[in-house]
Write a structure and sequence with these properties.
There is one protein chain. The protein folds into two domains: 263 residues, Type I PLP-dependent aspartate aminotransferase-like (Major domain) (Aspartate Aminotransferase, domain 2, 3-Layer(aba) Sandwich); 102 residues, Aspartate Aminotransferase, domain 1 (Alpha-Beta Complex). The chain is built from 13 helices and 16 strands. The relative contact order is 0.15. The structure holds pyridoxal-5'-phosphate. Pyridoxal-5'-phosphate binds next to helix 4. The site of pyridoxal-5'-phosphate has 14 residues, from helix 4.
Length: 426
């Protein structure tokens, strides 16, 4: 079972997992393995693939750019793919974000955001260094981003290294709970040490696809700005149409001071990330005093091939009816979700944009630990890539998914849940 491969896979307990399927080709919403199986990708390969696997325009941009350039040091040099992509990002981003810092993953662009926020105050001689976060938030798996995220079994061993943050209760589902979150945040802001609030706008992804209202996001932004606290929008998952708008912030009309984007930035084709910041934050680092430099770099900052892929993604947004596809996909989910809405096996059936989610009701939560692997084995047999998070089942497919493919997901989930509940003697 542990096999002879030297590869150590992410989020994988090698002592318990069946052998890895060997991917050989991708297209549309499908991953082919070396046994010739066509597996439907229900989670966009961990939330990165937006339009489809291997969009021809993105692949073409990668090929053309790599014919001319590979990595070029991004201090002392700039290049057209990065310049054009930065301009395009500023053009479409929420109001006020005028500067673009490139990196290479979701975690890194969040680390960059946190450093920018603290640097902003430090360079202005203002003593503000606390970070506020939402309960159940997720911002990545590096030490800094784990610090900002929910604590639990995933990061228990590293707890001694994680820095302290101020946690706000999840804003919902009731109006009372929303108000509690807002009140807690306002109280924290009045302390005067708060540097920034970092949050996933509208949807806490890894925290279980938990949704909260745009009005609450708008209000959190208003409170932050009233107290000189920076708002960091981690749009690593929510960006590029997932929630029904290009960025989730748009639905709240909120203007973050810093915005993090990765995953769908290149349509999910190659790694790239960007942290967008306001002119004010850039200005805090602009000085003839070298100590005020933004001291951050990763080796592959603004890789030209990745930037070209990002630019191709933006061109697809301009030239193809992407918003219309997203709207249609949302409608198709909504229609199919009604099937589960009054089904006692499910609760909290919910949908936002291209994300559909629901919780499976098990006789006792004690079963939870075993149910995930059981469900995954069923999905594997059905040639569906669906990964439950605890009792939460969700679909977040590439936007190209067809009606027939969606039916396969919903029928497959229906059947898998029935079988697992039966096997568990319900
Ligand atoms: C996935 C994710 C990250 C981390 O991105 P990586 O590329 O995996 O480092 C950060 N924030 C959010 C909201 C995410 O969903």
């Amino acid at each position: 079972m542990t096999g002879s491969s030297p590869v150590w896979h992410p989020f994988t307990q090698h002592a318990l997992e069946p052998e890895m399927r060997r991917a050989v080709r991708t297209e549309g919403a499908t991953i082919w393995d070396s046994d010739g199986n066509a597996i439907l990708d229900g989670i966009s390969s961990w939330w990165v693939i937006t339009h489809q696997h291997r969009h021809p325009k993105i692949i073409q941009a990668i090929q053309e750019t790599s014919a001319a350039m590979d990595q070029v040091i991004f201090a002392e040099f700039t290049h057209e793919p990065a310049e054009k992509l930065a301009q395009a990002l500023v053009r479409i981003a929420p109001e006020g974000l005028t500067r673009v810092f490139f990196s290479d993953s979701g975690s890194t662009c969040v680390e960059v955001a946190l450093k920018m926020a603290l640097g902003h105050f430090h360079n202005r001689g203002i003593r503000r260094s606390r970070i506020a976060v939402l309960e159940d938030g997720y911002h990545g798996d590096t030490i800094g981003t784990m610090s900002a995220g929910e604590r639990g079994v995933f990061n228990a061993p590293y707890d001694p290294l994680l820095f302290a943050v101020d946690r706000l209760p999840f804003p919902g589902p009731t109006r009372e709970a929303e108000q509690e979150t807002l009140d807690a945040f306002e109280a924290l802001c009045k302390g005067g040490e708060m540097a920034a609030l970092i949050l996933e706008p509208l949807v806490l992804g890894a925290g279980g696809m938990r949704f909260y209202r745009a009005e609450v996001l708008a209000e959190l932004g208003r409170i932050a700005h009233a107290h000189g606290v920076l708002l960091i929008a981690d749009e690593v998952m929510t960006g590029w149409g997932r929630t029904g708008t290009r960025f989730a912030c748009e639905q709240a009309g909120v203007a973050p001071d810093i915005l993090c984007t990765s995953k769908g930035l290149t349509g999910g084709s190659v790694p790239l990330a960007a942290t967008l910041a306001t002119e004010e934050i850039f200005a805090s680092h602009l000085s003839t005093d070298r100590r005020k430099t933004f001291f951050h770099s990763s080796s592959f900052t603004a890789n030209p091939i990745a930037c070209a892929a990002g630019l191709a993604n933006l061109e697809i947004w301009d030239s193809e009816p992407v918003m219309e596809r997203i709207r249609l996909l949302g409608e198709r989910h909504a229609t199919r979700l009604t099937r589960f809405a009054n089904d006692p096996r499910f609760r909290d059936v919910r949908q936002m944009g291209t994300i559909a989610a629901f919780n499976v009701v098990f006789p006792s939560t004690g079963y939870l630990a075993e149910v995930g692997p059981k469900l995954r084995a069923k999905f594997r047999a059905q040639k569906l890539l669906v990964r439950p998070m605890g009792d939460v089942l969700y679909l977040m497919t590439p936007y190209c998914v067809t009606e027939a493919e969606l039916d396969r997901f919903y029928d497959g989930i229906d059947q898998a849940v029935t079988e697992v509940l039966q096997e568990m003697g319900r």
